[in-house]
Every structure is written in structure tokens, then in C-alpha cells.
Design goal:
By secondary structure, this protein is mainly beta. The protein has one domain (about 15-55). It is about 10% helix and about 40% strand. It contains one helix and four strands, in the order E-E-E-E-H. The strands form two sheets. Strands 1-2 form a two-stranded antiparallel ribbon. A two-stranded antiparallel ribbon has the order 3-4. Strand 1 and strand 2 (about 25-30) form a beta hairpin. The protein is elongated, with a radius of gyration of 16 Å. The two termini are about 20 Å apart. The mean pLDDT is about 90.
Length: about 60
């Protein structure tokens, strides 16, 4: 299963983990995805993986 929000398309971000000695290694910031049931037009329910920001902003209508 991919780490992508099905509404806004948010994906993992890349960057560096920096130690106190300034050593740099690659790391990833994963989106905070939650599985929620949303209402589709026509009254159908569907489980989708949505980021927490979309849930808070009201882009999803919870079923």
C-alpha cells in the first residue's frame, strides 16, 4: 500500500538526519495517514487513506 493521501496527494518528503558531529544521512518524513470511511456522492461509503490535515480541514465527510 502506498504512502499517499488519496485527497491531496501528499507523499513522503526526503531530507537529511543531521548528527551533533554534522554527519548527514538520508531520512524520510512520512505523512500521517489514517484510514477513514467517507461518503461518496449517492450515499455510498468507501474506506480511503487520508492525511490528518485533510481530516482536520474538513475535506472529507466522515461516514
Amino acid at each position: 500500500m502506498s504512502s499517499k493521501c488519496e485527497i491531496c496527494g501528499k507523499t513522503p518528503a526526503n531530507g537529511n538526519r543531521v548528527s551533533h558531529a554534522n554527519n548527514r544521512t538520508k531520512r524520510r518524513w512520512m505523512p500521517n495517514l489514517q484510514t477513514v470511511r467517507i461518503l461518496k456522492p449517492g450515499g455510498n461509503r468507501k474506506k480511503t487513506r487520508v492525511c490528518a490535515q485533510c481530516i482536520r480541514s474538513g475535506k472529507t465527510i466522515a461516514a
